[in-house]
Amino acid sequence: MTPFLWQAAGLGGFVILFVLAERALQSRSPRQGAERQARATILAAALGGLVGAPAWWQNLPQAFPWPLPGLAAEYLAVAGLAFALGFAMILWTGTIAALRLGAWMLLVCLAPLSVAIYGWHLARFDLSAPVTWAFATVVALLILGATNALLRLNSNERGLSGPIDTAIGTVAGLWGLVLFAWPEGPLTQIWPWPGDPLTTRLIAASFLSVASAGWLSEGRAERRIALWIAAFHGAGIAAATGWTLATIGTGPILYLIVWAGIALAALWGLVTDRAGGPATGSTPRG
Q1: CA 50, CA 187: separation in Å to the nearest integer?
Q2: Residues near 16 by Cβ (< 8 Å), separated by ≥ 6?
Q3: What is the C-alpha to C-alpha distance for residues 102 and 217, in angstroms, rounded to an integer?
Q4: Positive or negative, the Cα torsion across 186, 192, 193, 199?
Q5: 13: CB partners within 8 A, 6+ apart
Q6: What angle do CA 20, 23, 29 make, to 5 degrees?
Q7: What is residue 94's three-state secondary structure?
Q8: What pTM was computed for the model?
Q9: CA–CA separation, 226 and 209 (whole Å)
Q10: DSSP labels for 14-71?
Q11: Contact status, residue 87 vs residue 49, Cβ threshold 8 Å
Q12: For the segment 205-258, what is each residue's pLDDT rounded down to a tens digit?
């Protein structure tokens, strides 16, 4: 199948899934105005990660606007699936606080990356390629949708993150900040893609998004969503790194160790939280 046909098939599948899912959500929990728009933004992001992840994992030509190293493509696929899972849980939970959590994750991930792209990395893009314009359009729409959601949706409760959420957010956030601010460091265990700062910043943006979920969740149900995202993302990063180490004999083992630790910590947080009682949202479903 040619790259164009792959893109057309992916777009067609995305549109069909979006229409069906939006109708199902509206039937289950009718929303209007800013709430429906915020939910649609998060739904689009979830489906984008779900549809894009298989192509990113295979590192197919024209699946992304710039060529990715193999391990980075796998990390991107892991992030896509982890965020799709988290956003699906946000949509199912249906609280205002959950919608705000999804909006924060999108904004923290995409806004700094967009600034970096237009400020330092625009030369990496083939402006004649359809995937470039598709990427730019999707990112712009998600940023606008997330910003609008945060400006117009007010939560009636702002709780503190739990200790495990905070610890995960701190580790993932510091790592993401270092990679994003200094994308060409000297140690391949921390900077696995020397000479490719744009890819480093892409992966850093996904780490920052995981961190924002841990830091900015507003209620117990939202904190559990943040833990599920960290568990899936951490396990996926560790598995991809382990596969690389097993197949080619070299790779950033520090990523395996740290992100496996994050996954285990998140699972421990979920187990111990469940022992405390049923999760409830901080705001009612509408």
Answers
A1: 32
A2: none
A3: 9
A4: negative
A5: 51
A6: 140
A7: coil
A8: 0.92
A9: 10
A10: HHHHHHHHHHHHHHHS---HHHHHHHHHHHHHHHHHHHHHHHHHHT-TTSSSS---HH
A11: yes
A12: 999 999 999 999 888 899 999 999 999 999 999 999 999 999 999 999 999 999
Dist. CA 183–CA 199, nearest whole Å: 9
Token pair listed for 105: 């994750």
Compute CA 123 distance to the chain's CA centroid, rounded to the nearest angstrom: 25
CB-based contacts of 80, cutoff 8 Å, min separation 6: 48, 49, 50, 52, 53, 56
pLDDT tens, residue by residue, 108-126: 999 999 999 999 999 999 9
The phi and psi torsions of 60 (rounded to 5 degrees) equal -70, 145
3-state DSSP assignment of residue 187: coil
- Which residue has 């709430």 as its token pair? 35
Write the single-letter amino acid at 4.
F
Please say whether the beta carbons of 95 and 223 come within 8 A.
no
Cα–Cα–Cα angle for 229, 232, 238, nearest 5°?
Answer: 130
How far apart are alpha carbons 136 and 132 in whole angstroms? 6
Q: In 10 A of CB 275, how many CB atoms?
A: 7
Instruction: Please count the residues of the chain.
Output: 286
Instruction: Tell me how far apart the alpha carbons of residues 6 and 148 are, in angstroms, rounded to a whole number.
Output: 32
**Structure-token pair, residue 15:** 């549109």
Tokens of 269: 């947080």
